[in-house]
Amino acid sequence: MEFFDLIFFVQDNLTVGGTPGGVNLPDAQEEGIDIMAEFIKGSYIYIPQIILSIISVYIFFERTQAINKAMKEEGNFMSQIKEYINQGKLDSARNLCSTTKTPVARMIEKGISRIGKDMGDIKAAIENVGKLEIYNLEKNVSFLATASGAAPMLGFLGTVIGMVGVFNSIKKNGPDLTSMGGDMMLAMITTVVGLIVGIIAYVAYNTLVARIGKVIHKMEARAVEFIDILETPTN
Length: 235
Description:
With 235 residues, the chain is an all-alpha fold. Helix content is 83%, strand content 0%. Helix 5 packs antiparallel against helix 6, helix 6 (103-113) packs antiparallel against helix 7 (119-137) and helix 7 packs antiparallel against helix 9. It is rod-shaped.
């Protein structure tokens, strides 16, 4: 119990007399300092949770922007590619792909660069580029899954530490609600914060996964369409 005794010693000394120095203040000011002291007591739980929430929100918006860019495509992109290929204007087709700057365009550009080789080589080249694009789209998304599980676990850790503090107060002072209140507040607030952060990260993760799935479906459809263009004989 030495570890917990050390924690409780630090916690108790934060709120002696309502202030770190034990100075009596007016009730409103003393209450404000007590609340701040209670927050400081749980900072070793709150701070990691806050960091997880900030990183999760940043990843969500950053990946959302990247996915939005990946979803953009000119309506006549594939029809232009088909026209250029049928006319033998491969340089024009590659230039169109390089200026479009989407995962689909980069896949098609790699396929165009392999025209003249075996169809299996073309498909393999497109598939390899597609895998790389999917990897780039999924970058850092797994962190959200980790945060959705880690934040509630940190909250439960704070709950356990708080409840141990409650029993420690009962052992020292008996069932005194005044001495138990701070530890009970720590136990509850850390759980609430952890669940909120976990829910945010969980929703963000599933939202991004669903949107990435739509991009992957689009990439597969355009790759099949491109192969069909190459396998269809020109008139």
